[in-house]
Amino acid sequence: MLGLPDEQNENSDTITNNNSHNINIDGQFTAEKSFDHVFFPTAYEDRTSSLLFRQICSYVQNKCLPSKKCGISYIKLLFPFLSWLKAYKLTWLPNDIVCGITVAIMQIPQGMGYALLAHLPAITGLYVSFFSSLIYALFGTSRHLSMGAIAVISLMTGNVVNRLTVKETLTTMVPSLLNKSTIESASNGAIIDPSYAITIATTLAFTVGIVQLLLSIFHLGFVTSFLSDTFVSGYTCGTAILVFTSQVPDIFGLSLKRYVGPFNVIYTYIEIFSNLKKTNIITLLVSACSIIALVLAKEYLDPFYKKKIKKFKLFKNVQIPIPMELIIIIIGTLVSYLLDLNGNYKVKIVNTIGRGFRKPQGPSVTLMPTLMKDAVIIAIVTFAICMSLAKTYAKKFKYIVNSNQELTAYGACNIIGSFFASFPSAASLSRTSVYVNAGGRTQMASLVACSFLLIIILRIGSLFESLPKACLASIIVVALKGLLLQMKDFYTIGRVTKLEAVVWLMTFLSTVILDVDYGLFVGIIVSLFVVILRQFRPRTTILGQYDRSNAYKKARRFSNAFEIPHVKIFRFESAIIYFNADFFRESLLDSIGIDLKTGQQRKNNPQESNDMCLSFRSITHIIIDCSSINQIDYSGGKIFIQALKELNGCQYKVYLCQLRYYNYDVLQKLQMDKECSVIVTATLHDAVHDIQDDLRENHNNKLLLANTEL
């Protein structure tokens, strides 16, 4: 029975149920059967096609037929260094010099190590560091990115070089696991033509650059939006495992077979454990000393050292790390040369490094079709890694990076560098962090680093020919610490959302087990599947009035949010499109106890309590909160109207509140007003207010009828 209080304020009406829950409605309300009576629309016309055509014409005019003024702006956009160079202050120069030298010191061992990871001569890593830093300083919009060789891209390049240089041998291994498939294998000591390996790597770099320029020209930088932070974390962590695995033979001084393709990491570890007895003790000793020295320096000496130098005014706001990597390669080279570790103890060394630059050489056109798939993958991964770093530091230091110009810069780095024996480059997280901590203000620091690297390439590089490979492998392994620690992200993400944790785990496992290219595809597919799953089965909510206010919350979530008597408020928290429209209809009808097969109110169900059955029968009004429905397509609109017709058929009065104008246009074009009876309100509170008046009128009519009969 519906009870009305004896006294009511002018601005407040109250309805009380048996549970003594009052429904307070204050203020004006708007409820009409037509959307146009709720709001007063302008003469809106959807001119999307004409606007798109106008934008295309404007773009062609500005890009292809630039005016003199537009041409000057275009030059400034293409060469961002003109902007920061014009505003450059001499007071920034000391910081940039210190930062440039510090970064260059890091690039020497990392560049050489990552070149070996890519199965290329060590000198090519220095070429990558030099050309990519120089070109990015001219074309890039980030002030802090440190371009050069990085572990992930070097590994992907190494896989391509390995696949195309190693002679394929059909070796069937573990038929039950691989289903009688074959993998490519070759001895780690196999002779690979360095010139051909460089040709493959430079052609790959050129193709990657072309892909990035095409992405820039057609403004397709948004493709990285499909690479979520969860995916990138799982992918880079999985790649770090592969990089670590590739360095284990050099740490133990083993000559092993190389495996290419799915399950290669499994067979690599089988090969490692099978040959552990052949470990070169001297190589292992060199590796152990290098790793211990690096860990002690980074974990203990470096913090103490930075704390001490802060006492000096010059280093108060600058953090310069101990150049332990450079110290390791200098000491390693001296010890190897003096004791002739290669001749006496068969310790693998870098061998020929050379001096100076190679003659410019173009890419191999015949290889480009073969490398296209790998180039697209590397181009997208490079852009995702670089842009995430660039945006992070741009936000921190309050400046803007242009994603389209960044693609141009990355493409220029790879295309120009490819003519000078450079493999694909990207921004390094560790070097960029040092770049910032060392006080770098602009890309002038990169130009300083290039000057330092130029001296190394022209004069000093050949002195490192006696450097043990174990030293470089140790440097790479220790540098992987940050990437390997991303395993903690799986636990952190899992606490927030289980589906995202599945994305991380699937990406990680597929990268480690199936290899980097398959890992990329699997990760993207799983990420998209999770997005589609969330849209396919979105959340539905039954709302109640929250604490006697005009706010409405999930009734089951809050103890002081009560469902309104005779009213069911239903909210669908997603767009209604073709693949989830049936779920919307089923959820809506099920929430008020309508049988989906018969379209009638369900009879007593043993699985439902008596109170629930009575609650279903007492419902007379349905409110559909459309605030979370940001799109309704043709199929979704048809099923939406069908659901409304079924509600009308069961004698329910239906309200639509907070319906967006473009969704209303779709429903009107599908003749919603003719097909069914609905009332459109501006807000949810207005709908409840109108229902209150309707219930009061019905109650008064019943009282009047009862008095008449008496």
TrEMBL record:
Annotated organism of origin: Rotaria magnacalcarata
Keywords, sorted A to Z: Membrane, Transmembrane, Transmembrane helix
Residue span, STAS domain: 557-691
Location of the region described as Disordered in the Swiss-Prot/TrEMBL record: 1-20
Pfam short name (any one): STAS
Alphabetized PANTHER family for the sequence: SULFATE TRANSPORTER (PTHR11814)
PROSITE patterns per UniProt: STAS
Protein name as it appears in the record: STAS domain-containing protein
